[in-house]
């Protein structure tokens, strides 16, 4: 019995050690350059496929090339929200500071992805539908996602005590999760102007292989980018919130 | 696929839409890490100033 206990204790110790800001701070610093390199590699490959390999679309001409940034940005805006809510939920359950800091660090980049999704969508909608914006189920639910991100950021900013801000914003993030499946299935549940899913897990994609590759490479690029920026931001947040901890003082030692 | 650079930039008549989409994305994605880096440098600078101030206080009270 004692053996099993020891075993589980060890595992707990290892996990929770990484969940302490002082252990995560240097690790994040080491990982950042790695993710920037991956961002660059996937980005260059993705742009090359998007503009020089993927063939012209039969219906939409060259205008369809917006898909290569629009779809990955939309995917990331939803995915980042789920990750943010998961971190916020973990912070609520285990009361770990780092989880809440991760949620805090993810919110701005998620908001930017939602904004870019709407922006590129508008610039795609104008030539193809003749309108910058329509109150379509998919567009409206994506706009709500942007407001959820902004609400999360604003709620945090309005509460002075960071630990209380963690809890309040975590609840907002978790309630908002209901919006993600609504966005995803909106094109099925309602009659929308927006086209259906371009990529499905259950059936063969209805597009040229090279187009699919372009989208996947760009999605990987934005994914690596989001990780890199989030790690950079979480390091700044750690320093701001742990400013008076001993380990921060030692690591920032002023040479005199 | 593209016979000349000008044909590439014209994007088959969709230049405004394609380049506005990719341009704003590039702008946002480049500015974002620069802003985060500025925030990081600001907090490091503040912490160093606080430490210097404390050292100064200690030396003065000696």
Q: Quote the distance from N terminus to C terminus of chain B.
A: 77 Å
| Total count of helical runs of at least 4 residues of chain A | 9
The dominant shape of chain A is: globular
Biggest contact: A-B, 39 and 32 residues
Question: What is the β-strand count of chain A?
Answer: 0
How many distinct domains of chain A?
1
Structural overview:
The complex is a heterodimer of chains A (256) and B (62). Chain A is mainly alpha-helical and 256 residues long. Chain A has one domain (24-251). In chain A, 77% of the residues lie in helices and 0% in strands. Chain A has helices at residues 2-18, 21-53, 67-94, 97-129, 137-158, 162-176, 179-189, 209-241, 246-251. Chain B has 62 residues and is mainly alpha-helical. Chain B has one domain (5-61). In chain B, 85% of the residues lie in helices and 0% in strands. Chain B has 2 helices and no strands. Chain B has helices at residues 5-10, 15-61. Chain B is rod-shaped. Classes of the chains: A mainly alpha (256), B mainly alpha (62). Chains A and B meet through helix 3, helix 4 and helix 8 of A and helix 2 of B.
Give a short summary of the structure.
The complex is a heterodimer of chains A (256) and B (62). Chain A has 256 residues and is mainly α.
